[in-house]
Each structure stands twice: as C-alpha cells, then as structure tokens.
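Dear colleagues,

I hope this message finds you well. In preparation for our joint manuscript, I am sending the Zinc carboxypeptidase (Fodinibius roseus) sequence together with its predicted structure, so that both groups work from identical material. I would be grateful if you could confirm receipt.
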Amino acid sequence: MPSSRFFWFLLLVFLMFQSCKSSEEFTGYSYDPEGVTNTADKEIQFQYSRTIGVAAEGIWISNEFEGARMNDFYRVSDSLYRAVIEPENHPINNSPWYSFKMHSNSPTTINLQLSYKHGKHRYLPKLSRDGKRWTRIDSSDIREDTSGTATLTLDLNKNPLWISAQELLTYRDMVAWMDSISTATPTQLDTVGYSHQQRPVIKMTIGSAPPDHKQGVLVITGRQHPPEVTGGLASRAFIEALTADTELAGTFRKEFEIWSYPLVNPDGVAEGHWRHNGAGIDLNRDWKNFNQPETRAIRDDLLPINERPERRVYYGIDFHSTKSNIFYPIKRDISTFPEDFTYRWIEPLQEQFPETPFNVEPFDTNSPIAKNWIYQTFGADAVTYEVDDRADRQKLKEVSRQAAQIIMRHLLAEKKKRP
Ligand SMILES: [Zn+2]
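The corresponding structure tokens are as follows:
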C-alpha cells in the first residue's frame, strides 16, 4: 500500500536524520544536565569557610580545610542536626561531594542529616579521626530515604571527626605525590598553565631516552571531576608502576615518554566541588571548544607533538570514577592507531581478575571529551578508565598496577613493529 510505503519512507528519513544528528551534534550524555556542552564561563557560588555550631549543645562543624564542602548547619530537633550541602553551581550531574569535620564539647551521640540542594545522596560516608586514615561508616549508622537525604549516627567528642564522601585526596596531596615520584625516578615536573584561581596545571614527563631518540608517547589525564577519588588512586598506582625500578618499566621508559596531567581540575579539587572547575564548567565537555584555561593548557602542551617526527602518540588514558568499573573504549569499527588496543589489554586484565567485573562500553568519538580529542588529534587509540566509587582500595591499586604492566608490554610490542 502506498501509504504504508510512505510511512516507511518517512521512518527511514527520520532514522537517517537521527543518526546524522548523533554523529555530528553531541549535546550531552543521558546523565548530563542540559547545556553541558556550552562551556563558556558560568557563575559559581563559594561556600563560606567557617566553624559553626549550636553553642547551647556544644556541637560544632567546620569546613575550614582543603577539599571541604559544607554550606550550612543547624539543629532540627533534640538530637537531629542537618548539614546542608550545595554544589558550586547548577544544573549539575549528581555527584554530591561533601567533606567536613565535627566535634562536641563533651562526648555525645547525634543524628546528622545530609541534606542536598540540587542533588541526591550518593557517596557512602568515610570517617576519620585524623584526616588521613579512613573507614567506611558502619551500615547500621546510616539510613537513606527516598527523598535523597541520608541520616548518620555519629559519636562525637572534643577531638575532630572527619566525615567525607570519599577519603580526602586533596590538591596538596597530589602535588606532594608528584614531588615524591620526581625525586625517585627521572621525572620532570612542569607548569603548563594556570587554572581560573591561578593554581598550576602540572605535567609530569617521565622517560629516560635522549631527546632525539624515536619514542612513543603515552598520555595520561585524571581528576577532571573532583569527587572521583578512586580514579585518582588508580591513576597514582598506574603511574607508580610506570616509574617503578623494574626491568619492564625501565625498558618501557627507554621507548616511551609518559606525558601525564593527573590533576586537570585543581580548583575543583581544592574547593570541594561536585564536578566543575573554577568557572562552573565540566572540563570533560570542553575538549572541542577549549573555553577553559585548564583544557587549553593541556591541549597547547600536547599539540606540538604532531610537529615532532621523533615522537608519536600511541595511547591515551583518562582516569575517572563512577558506580562500577567501566572501560569506555572507542568503538571497534573506528580505525585507530594502534588498532583495537584497548580491547587487547582489557582481555588479559579480566583474566587476571576473574572475580572483579569490568564492563566494556564502546563509544562513538563525537563527544567533546579528553579521550576523543586524543583520537581526533593524533589518530591514537584512547580509553576512559572508570573505577567503581565503592571499589576496595587495595584491589583497585592492584588492578591498576596490573593494567600498567599489560599496557607496557603491549605498547612495547606495538613499537617493535614500527622501529
Ligand atoms: Zn568523571
């Protein structure tokens, strides 16, 4: 029937239009807020840095430390208190970071409600008595409700108790770690640019071959999103494996240079942001427009590689965290250099950790994220390496170290094919 043929024709036109649209115009992932790809500066709201409390009860709360987030605090009823947690701006993805410390004049037990504006409870609280060693809150001491708040039972005394969405891995911690790596292994630290709030965007260059030796380049980025601490821990274990005093790592550093930017969003990490940088922008949506100083600095540092015949980018890894272990490789039908590299290292990694599930979700290369920029600029294969928010910390480091071993072996084999 002509009318049904016409219907199929219309459907075909519609689908063609849709598929063109999906490959040309990226407007955000399903979990992104509207307007995420408009990366021009937005206004952000600063939290007041202060120690406040209910003097009559002698209960105190503070956000006066790096990486803290706590916007307001008050007593709701006899033993119920409320901490209000707000993002740096909104709309924003639901990754509500909080971090604060509490104490009381005399030992007492309170109920504390975490009440989020523009978000719902997500991160299981980690507790610490010294800000360094952390434990997960006991499951009997937390109750979540359907409205998106969580209520914690906390034992307070005159010594501070840190309560944090994840253990703190602050700007200062990351810089101290980079310093420690650079004193142990020949590593050059450079400031490639400055964030909105004038914090340095630091690059670690690791490698030990003479500059004119033909070398591959491995690009590593991390911490574009401040609360993603497990991704930060994995990136450190990964880089430590590359800089280790082992035969494999030594050989690797002769054939490959590692260009690493492990703290892409220093302002967001220092200010306890939920996701954005100092101008309220998701940096991992700015790798097309480059409106932000952090992404621009890294782009401008990497671009000259294309002018250097003695350097070639082989691979890019961008570390993140989410609700499970996921690798986002480039779709297999898209041709990369080296071909299908991600798929070839994930397989042996999964074999080594059969009890740890890794999801592999291939993606198109149209979104303005770091991995895709690496591919589009250098033709190289690249991956987004997402670590489970709740991953066992020892295990995630072990997995990351093993991933580094496999990647080093595979990259060396690739380079041998093209001496
Ligand atoms: Zn992320």
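For the figure legend, we might mention the following. The first strand starts at residue 51 and ends at 54. The domain at 171-417 is CATH 3.40.630.10 (Aminopeptidase).

With kind regards,
E.M.
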